[in-house]
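Bumping with the actual sequence this time:
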Amino acid sequence: MIALVYGGLLLSWSSLEDNSLLPVVLLSGGLALLLVILWVTRRFGGRSFAARNAMLGAAILGALTGLIAAVAAAALMLVKDGLHSDLYPDYPFGLIIDTLARAPLWSLAGIFAGIGALLAWWAYKSKTT
């Protein structure tokens, strides 16, 4: 159901004449999060892991999510430029390349977000038990 809602948002965004970066970054982050969560639940669903492995796993998954988000943002910009075929594209090629150049920073942010989410989960679990 979440994927259908995301697809509807993506379809409505792609039809707009808009060159703002915020929607494409939010959509690419959502896509990256959806893909990583789907992969993790299919690959590791139902398994339990030791706490000593969880921190490294959260950092790796966060880095992967950040990297996918940067690539997805560039891909979404390219797709929107291709769909609209304007004389002046919504997202110039330099902006797309700059987005890809920031992929290491997005991965670093993903590492911090992944570790933060894990720590928040541990705090929540310790309060409820």
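The tokens above came from a reply further down the thread. The longest helix spans residues 51-84.
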